[in-house]
Q: What sequence folds into this?
């Protein structure tokens, strides 16, 4: 075989169960520096995209991530529709509603997934089991509507691929009712629990200025008081036709990030309910054939923040350049400041709080700064983190009321 | 056109080569490479725009870099365009010294397209392995 192998190059998207490597430098218990090494999941999707025709690219970018698998194709079709004259001028009304509904269903399942894993990391395995239990009926709704639990293949240039049928609506509404009750339960479980508060408040703080300087997006930025949300700032779908709130917290710690995500569950549920009521009848696809030469930018608010796609077309049936920037690209980099100064046992949940891949935390190595020797691995860290919660719980219950 | 873009164009009226409003909320403003850091600093520090990302493209005219800024108050994306005509040794001043948000993407453009960012605090491989052969840039088009 020739040595001139062409290595395809593309975006990196650090999400659940994918590899990253954090190298923590510690002095005693305290983290003094951190190296973030990424690139293990580099699959060359940007380059691949230049060799596929526009219809295929939507399927390709869906596979960047199995959790935000509505956000990437949606941002891509928005970028192409930006060249065509804007989503509103191209896509039929009903399709706008369907896109919004699927996008919000995705946010609910993603936030529940994170909540479960965050619970697991601090030793609350019940929260983990609950969160994933309530996520399950939603995945079944996805299967009924899109034909698949993940990888929905809904967005296409000019519309959506499948309609939401009359029969789906009562099932989805019932699931939303259940989720609404479950959200109450989670809200209570997190906000009223002194152990969780003691464990998460003041941990992994990203200040307002740091959040801006590092360009963080989504719940990570909103938990630090940065008032941004693409759904409101640069509306797509029908987000400007339904009423909802951008959830903000000021503290910037892990607790604030948790609260933002839990409260966003309610907003998502409300958005879907309003869309189901307002959705008009009609076509779902504009049947676009040709993409003219030009350049366009599409962005959507993925569960983790702004997902950014840039497309340049030369009038052929393939993109000339396709730049993809996933939200975690900005958020993970900010761990460089959020994790420093923490104790080792708080690092796991701090790194996990931006909702990146969890596998990454299993790849953490703790190094003795003097000897540059590995002293701990990821599982040791999760155990340490869970152990700290136990200690906090015991010390709290020992205190007289 | 929104107020932010108007202010920006006024401030840099002598340096702007070309300015286009391609669609609602999408502005593309072209500069010569030496003017980029000052323009980026003004957008970030004075107009409070958020740095979204940058994208490098290998074109016949040179390596084109687009710096995408988001004005979250108006929902506009302001993209600063610049073209590095020397494709053999493209160089531009780093903007990672102004805000750390640009650190990773400059490393990425450096390794994938071979653009040297002068003054970057930590210009090393991000996505590719450390012993990646020098001078091979995967996103360069074939001559």
A:
């Amino acid at each position: 075989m020739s040595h001139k192998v062409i290595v395809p190059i593309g975006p990196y998207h650090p999400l659940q169960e994918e590899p990253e490597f954090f190298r923590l430098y510690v002095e005693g218990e305290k983290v003094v520096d951190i190296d973030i090494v990424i690139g293990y999941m580099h699959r060359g999707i940007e380059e691949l995209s230049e060799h596929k025709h526009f219809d295929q690219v939507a399927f390709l970018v869906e596979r960047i991530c199995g959790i935000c698998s509505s956000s990437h194709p949606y941002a891509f079709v928005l970028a192409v529709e930006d060249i065509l004259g804007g989503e509103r001028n191209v896509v039929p009304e009903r399709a706008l509603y369907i896109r919004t509904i699927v996008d919000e269903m995705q946010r609910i399942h993603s936030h529940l997934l994170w909540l479960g894993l965050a619970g697991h990391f601090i030793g609350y395995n019940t929260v983990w089991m609950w969160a994933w239990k309530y996520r399950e009926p939603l995945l079944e709704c996805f299967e009924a509507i899109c034909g698949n639990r993940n990888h929905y293949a809904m967005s296409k240039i000019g519309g959506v691929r499948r309609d939401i049928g009359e029969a789906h609506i009562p099932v989805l509404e019932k699931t939303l009712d259940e989720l609404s009750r479950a959200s109450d339960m989670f809200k209570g479980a997190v906000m009223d629990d002194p152990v969780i508060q003691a464990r998460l408040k003041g941990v992994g703080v990203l200040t307002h200025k740091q959040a801006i300087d590092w360009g963080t997006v989504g719940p990570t930025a909103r938990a630090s008081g940065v008032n941004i949300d693409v759904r409101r700032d640069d509306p797509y779908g029908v987000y400007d036709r339904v009423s909802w709130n951008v959830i903000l917290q000021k503290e910037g710690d892990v607790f604030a990030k948790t609260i933002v995500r839990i409260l966003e569950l309610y907003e998502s549920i409300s958005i879907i309910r309003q869309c189901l009521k307002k959705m008009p009848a009609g076509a779902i696809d504009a049947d676009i054939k040709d993409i003219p030469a030009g350049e366009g930018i599409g962005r959507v608010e993925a569960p983790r923040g702004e997902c950014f796609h840039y497309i340049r077309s030369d009038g052929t049936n393939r993109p000339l350049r396709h730049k993809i920037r996933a939200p975690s690209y900005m958020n993970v980099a900010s761990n460089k400041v959020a994790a420093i100064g923490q104790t080792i046992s708080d690092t796991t949940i701090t790194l996990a709080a931006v909702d990146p891949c969890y596998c990454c935390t299993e790849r953490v190595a703790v190094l003795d700064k003097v000897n540059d020797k590995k002293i701990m691995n990821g599982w040791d860290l999760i155990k340490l983190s869970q152990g700290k919660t136990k200690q906090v719980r015991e010390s709290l219950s020992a205190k007289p009321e | 056109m929104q107020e932010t873009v108007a202010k920006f164009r006024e401030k840099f009226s002598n340096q702007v080569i070309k300015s286009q409003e391609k669609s609602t909320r999408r502005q593309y403003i072209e500069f010569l490479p030496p003017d980029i850091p000052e323009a980026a600093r003004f957008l970030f520090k004075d107009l409070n725009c958020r740095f979204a990302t940058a994208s490098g493209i290998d074109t016949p005219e040179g390596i084109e870099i687009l710096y995408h800024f988001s004005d979250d108050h108006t929902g506009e994306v302001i993209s600063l365009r610049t073209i590095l005509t020397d494709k053999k040794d493209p160089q531009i001043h780093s903007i990672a010294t102004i805000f750390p948000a640009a650190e990773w993407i400059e490393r990425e453009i450096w390794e994938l397209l071979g653009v040297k960012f002068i003054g970057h605090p930590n210009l090393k491989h991000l996505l590719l392995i450390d012993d990646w052969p020098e001078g091979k840039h995967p996103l360069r088009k074939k001559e």
